[in-house]
């Protein structure tokens, strides 16, 4: 029993609760045991009632027991209340911090892949994770495509994360090497195709994880948007292009090259193995007259004018941040149809002419990992050959003035000039652009000067000691040089030429004189071959204002089958450029030929090339045109002559 107030020697009303300060106007409140007793009684009443019901406390239970009851149970109640609040509030707080956190991609590499999925090494940065350190237990995340107006789009696949520590009030790096199990090939393509086109996009990461925090395990939901970086391959170029082999049975010509490009992305593709893509070519967009920027824009998109020309094989494809260089093979396939054959002809003609072109590549195709098919549309700039197919030429008296007899291999004389018997022209030098030899036949090239020129001239006939002026003429301005073609007898100038001829010398000579093919060895070997010259269609009418387009010398085609302007054009050109202080004539030629690689052929109707500014040299004898009868005293007495002194060029 507690002592009463009287027993303690003072009255309850005599003890002040708060002493009033001087100047306070409020009356002092005084401590009252009656008030305390009442409050303790109310506090303990329910507990005492329970004890009375159990027979452990009489109806006159003392204040001391009531007070003890209350003092013991109040902390217990408070602890229970605190635990209740912790159980309810902590998960809410953890979820709130998880919802507020942001994730960003640090780096990611994909590959290798198989039919079910692709390996992923990914590093994510988690920011705003909360003020308390925690641990995220291993969990599975589901990747979705972005969807407007929805929390997430189609499911891409599932990715497992290991147990990861999360720092307090600091960024956390979440990294894993795992397997992305692809759920939908269509969703994977939809998510990755924009990235490889150079467009950043968002993926949605969803899942549930257990977070260990403050000694408790809390289950949270993950709903995060992850921005994926663009992975465009910049400045993609194919160099060191070389024809490797041809196969007529399949219609495929294989070309090897080295492709290089640059990537600024943190997303990489590694160990992807062999990838194949379809190659498309737009002949109109790749016309040399089209500006480079316009060419890249037009040829770099798939359109109705894009023609599939074959397949590109990348044996060991990877895409890493920074500079990349890969080996590739381009399989040009004529069996794809007439349009493909024509497009292939345009491509090779322009490539051999030295022009840069754009190939469009779409794929991959036929991959074991089908979800990778057609996720990429890229362009490759294919550089033209650094050295033209024809590197130069030579006009000399024996080739250009006298010519070669296709029946005997000897030089032609004055009365052996008819077409089909005597061939005149120039020796041309060239070499194949790659590592192996190429064969050409049916060459027909129209050659042009770099600028038109005109002249007037006189031709003389020497009969005995007296020169006789027999022809004067004027030639109007023209940039036409000649039409050059490969013909039987073109190898008469080279008695030692042997293109798999018979060991029998007589048979080998007949084969040589009948041969009209050109074999160019691979670099660095340069070969020489002869091309016969004749007027281009309409050239005589363009250059001769008098309309005299028939044989120049007395109208005798066996003496001279060409008009006077064409007969004298080579000497006139040599004199014209010699007067300008030059020792060669710059020629641009364009035309067609049949390209043969092994047993694979690209017909002349489909293959054309332009050779720009090939220097054609000339000997001093060419500026002194003289044709006579071969040998004997008559040959020294009767000849045609035409020199630079007989030519007049108008003032510049």
Structural class: alpha+beta
Q: Hey, roughly how much beta strand do the residues contain?
A: 35-45%
Helix % is 10-25%
Q: How many distinct domains?
A: 3
- The Rg value, from CA coordinates, equals 48 Å
Total strand segments: 33
Overall mean pLDDT score?
A: 84
Largest sheet, in brief, is:
10 strands, mixed
Identify low-pLDDT runs.
1-31
Treating each run of at least 4 consecutive H or I residues as one helix, how many helices?
A: 11
Q: Could you tell me how far the N terminus lies from the C terminus, measured between alpha carbons in angstroms?
A: 140 Å
Shape, please? elongated
Keywords: Membrane, Transmembrane, Transmembrane helix
InterPro entries: Tag1
Report on the structure:
There is one protein chain. The protein has 652 residues and is an alpha+beta fold. It has three domains: 97-228, Immunoglobulin-like (Sandwich); 234-382, Immunoglobulin-like, CATH 2.60.40; 390-648, no CATH class. Helices cover 21% and strands 41% of the residues. The chain contains eleven helices and 33 strands. The strands form five sheets. Strands 3, 4, 5, 6, 7, 8, 9, 10, 11 and 14 form a ten-stranded mixed beta sheet that branches. The radius of gyration is 48 Å and the shape is elongated.
């Amino acid at each position: 029993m507690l002592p009463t107030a009287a027993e303690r020697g003072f009255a309850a009303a005599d003890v002040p609760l708060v002493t009033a300060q001087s100047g306070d106007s409020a009356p002092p409140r005084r401590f009252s045991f009656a008030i305390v007793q009442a409050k303790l009684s109310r506090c303990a009443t329910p507990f005492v009632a329970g004890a009375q019901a159990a027979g452990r406390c009489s109806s006159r239970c003392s204040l001391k027991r009531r007070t003890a009851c209350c003092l013991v149970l109040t902390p217990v109640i408070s602890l229970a209340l605190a635990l209740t609040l912790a159980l309810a509030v902590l998960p809410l707080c953890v979820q709130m911090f998880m919802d507020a956190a942001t994730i960003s991609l640090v780096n990611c590499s994909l590959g290798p892949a198989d039919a079910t999925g692709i390996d992923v090494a990914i590093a994510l940065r988690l920011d705003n994770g909360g003020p308390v350190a925690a641990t995220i237990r291993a969990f599975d995340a589901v990747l979705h495509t972005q969807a407007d107006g929805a929390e997430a789009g189609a499911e891409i696949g599932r990715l497992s994360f290991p147990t990861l520590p999360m720092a307090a009030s600091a960024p956390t790096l979440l990294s894993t090497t795992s397997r992305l199990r692809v759920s939908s090939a269509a969703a994977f393509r939809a998510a990755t195709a924009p990235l490889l086109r150079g467009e950043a996009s968002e993926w949605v990461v969803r899942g549930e994880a257990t977070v260990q925090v403050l000694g408790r395990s809390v289950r949270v939901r993950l709903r995060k948007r992850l921005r994926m970086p663009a992975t465009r391959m910049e400045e993609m170029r194919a160099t060191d292009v070389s024809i490797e082999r041809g196969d007529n049975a399949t219609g495929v010509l294989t070309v090897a090259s080295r492709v290089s490009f640059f990537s600024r992305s943190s997303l990489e593709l590694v160990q992807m193995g062999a990838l194949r893509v379809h190659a498309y070519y737009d002949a109109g967009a790749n016309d040399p007259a089209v500006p480079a920027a316009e060419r890249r824009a037009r040829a770099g998109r798939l359109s109705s004018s894009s023609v599939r020309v074959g397949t590109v094989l990348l044996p060991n494809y990877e895409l890493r941040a920074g500079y990349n260089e890969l080996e590739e093979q381009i399989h040009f396939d004529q069996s794809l149809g007439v349009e493909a054959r024509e497009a292939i002809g345009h491509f090779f003609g322009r490539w051999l002419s030295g022009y840069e072109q754009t190939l469009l590549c779409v794929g991959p195709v036929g991959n074991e990992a089908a979800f990778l098919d057609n996720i990429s549309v890229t362009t490759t700039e294919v550089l033209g050959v650094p050295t033209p197919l024809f590197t130069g030429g030579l006009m000399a008296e024996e080739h250009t003035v006298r010519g070669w007899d296709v029946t005997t291999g000897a030089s032609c004389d004055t009365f052996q000039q008819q077409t089909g018997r005597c061939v005149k022209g120039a020796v041309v030098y060239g070499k194949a652009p790659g590592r192996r030899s190429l064969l050409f036949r049916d060459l027909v090239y129209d050659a042009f000067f770099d600028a038109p020129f005109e002249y007037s001239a006189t031709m003389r006939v020497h009969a005995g000691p007296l020169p006789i002026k027999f022809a004067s003429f004027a030639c109007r301005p023209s940039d036409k040089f000649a039409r050059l073609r490969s013909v039987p007898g073109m190898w008469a100038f080279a008695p030692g030429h042997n293109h798999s001829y018979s060991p029998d010398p007589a048979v080998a000579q007949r084969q040589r004189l009948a041969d009209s093919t050109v074999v160019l060895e691979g670099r660095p070997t340069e070969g020489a071959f002869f091309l016969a010259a004749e007027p281009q269609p309409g050239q005589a009418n363009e250059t001769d204002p008098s309309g005299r387009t028939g044989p120049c010398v007395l109208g005798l085609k066996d003496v001279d089958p060409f008009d006077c302007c064409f007969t004298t054009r080579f000497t006139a050109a040599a004199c014209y450029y010699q007067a300008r202080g030059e020792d060669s004539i710059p020629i641009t030629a364009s035309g067609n030929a049949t390209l043969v690689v092994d047993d694979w052929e690209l017909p002349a109707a489909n293959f054309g090339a332009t050779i720009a500014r090939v220097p054609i040299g000339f000997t001093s004898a060419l500026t002194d045109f003289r044709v006579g009868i071969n040998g004997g005293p008559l040959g020294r007495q009767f000849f045609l002559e035409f020199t630079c002194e007989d030519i007049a060029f108008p003032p510049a």
